[in-house]
Amino acid sequence: MGASRASGARLLGFLADAQARGVREALREFNLEALAGRPITEIFVGLADVICPGAGTVDEGIAREAYIETIIELTTEGLTDLSTFTPDQMQTVFELYVTHAIEARICNDIGTKAVTMPTDVQAAHRVEAQLRDFIRGGVSDALTRARSESPNLPPERIQSFVDTVYESAFAILQSLGQAEADQ
Question: Can you give the pTM of this predicted structure?
């Protein structure tokens, strides 16, 4: 999940920069300052090639798909104004992205038959919904733990932080999955 991790780091870096220096200045880094004041979905669409450059490999495609799914979900979470984001809202955006990235990776694994799904369509939909909730919970727990250990993230620590979140989320998912299998 290298591309997803790198994209997650770029997303988190942009969000931290927007909070620290303001949206216009953060966008200026990418010659996109004209997007300042626009709805968050427009800003994030404008940043797509910055956050998720390239889409030639499966891994890059997963990162981009996760980013697009995050943009779609922003409004349902009530996240519409980037200029007033709180640290918790930044966490929510990052949490959404990581959740979608892990879910897309698992869906890819299902497609390549590395993981199997029930053949009954309704059962498969239930599994998918449970999986999404399961992933989101694992990501949220990992992110909360990582933020408690390092609440202020300077730019040079963001990639390390993202790696820690991914590793923790997968560890939590693995242990929860094992506990579920043992029942």
Answer: 0.77
